[in-house]
Amino acid sequence: MTDLPPDLLRLRTLETWLQLALDEVRRAIAAAERREAERQRGIEARPPAPDWLIELGLNRDAPPVYVHVGGCHMAGKRSKGVPRGAAMRALTEGVVACPHCRPDSELGFLDG
């Protein structure tokens, strides 16, 4: 470091300030490590994505809109995970297969 003060009093003051700054940085690092550890625990504890999704209509009484393969990027927020049998049943009952992920092909469902 350059341009340090020559007298002991100002050097001690600078030392104290640097120690306080270092303590603050270490607390910030510890907090960031805790956040990262919690984020990682959340990722590890996340349940697996469902294999099949049914996208529900706009209200409770509306029929389902689409059947999706689990993880389809086009599935809306009103989607719920269902087992394979429920996805097949929905397709046989006339619920539309998502044209992007094609769950009918994945399920081996042949219309008609």
Describe this structure in words.
The chain has 112 residues and is an alpha+beta fold. The chain is built from three helices and four strands. Strands 3-1-2-4 form a four-stranded mixed β-sheet. The mean pLDDT is 91.
Question: What does this entry show, briefly?
Answer:
With 112 residues, this protein is an alpha+beta fold.
Structural class: alpha+beta
**Percent of residues in helices:** 40-55%
- Overall number of strands: 4
Along the chain, the helix and strand elements come as HEEEHEH
The major β-sheet equals: 4 strands, mixed
Number of domains: 2
Strand order of the largest sheet: 3-1-2-4
Quaternary: single chain
Beta strand %: 5-15%
Shape, please?
rod-shaped
The count of helical stretches stands at 3
Distance between the termini: 81 Å
Point out poorly predicted stretches: none
Residue-averaged pLDDT, rounded?
91
Radius of gyration: 29 Å
What topology does this entry show?
Blueprint: H1 8-45, E1 52-55, E2 66-69, E3 79-82, H2 84-92, E4 96-97, H3 103-107
Parallel strand pairs: 2-4
Antiparallel strand pairs: 1-2, 1-3
Keywords summarizing the entry:
4-stranded mixed sheet; alpha+beta; 4 strands; single chain; 112 residues; 46% helix
